[in-house]
Hints:
The chain is built from 2 helices and 14 strands.
Amino acid sequence: MNFLNVQFKACYGPAGQRASGLMQRIDTSLPGVFELRPVIHRDGRGCFIETYHQVKFAGLGITDAFLQDNLSCSVCGTLRGLHYQLRQPQAKLCRVVQGKVLDVAVDIRFGSPNFGKWTSVLLSSEQQNQIYVPVGFAHGFLALSETVQFLYKCSDFYNPADEHGVAWNDPDLNIGWGAAEPVLSARDAQYSPLSQVPREFLPEYTAK
């Protein structure tokens, strides 16, 4: 994995000066999917974390305008995914505010050199790390702790009519969930493997 450290000066006036913060971007095995690790400022009161700053994140290569925040609560063993929107594609910036999850992104862009490949990041409230999932990728996660509160930002609004998905247990993807019988919604349980999704229901790859 490649590491990118971006140093920023504090944005506070004299009454609230801070030491410069350091945000670490870690490239995953899929180009465009990043793990983000923040500095956690700790003292006797607890801690402070800057979870999002538009200018700083742009410096890390995340330039999306996020329009909607969602919070999901899950019990251990719950698997949500693999989801995507087609006409209103969503980039997602995900983190865990309570608990721990295995977060997975799958490249489903037709024509992509990484089509059908997946990567994963272990997200936890202890580490306060995040994952950035760009448009053109299906996304899902598995709850690994007793309870999970999962918070994510989206670059477009949720549209139920534009909801699509891929089977979590697609044998060709062979995702290493580590769970044979997760808790699923009826919708997630009926999704087809990627090879059976019609081409017109998949995003197109555009070379940069």
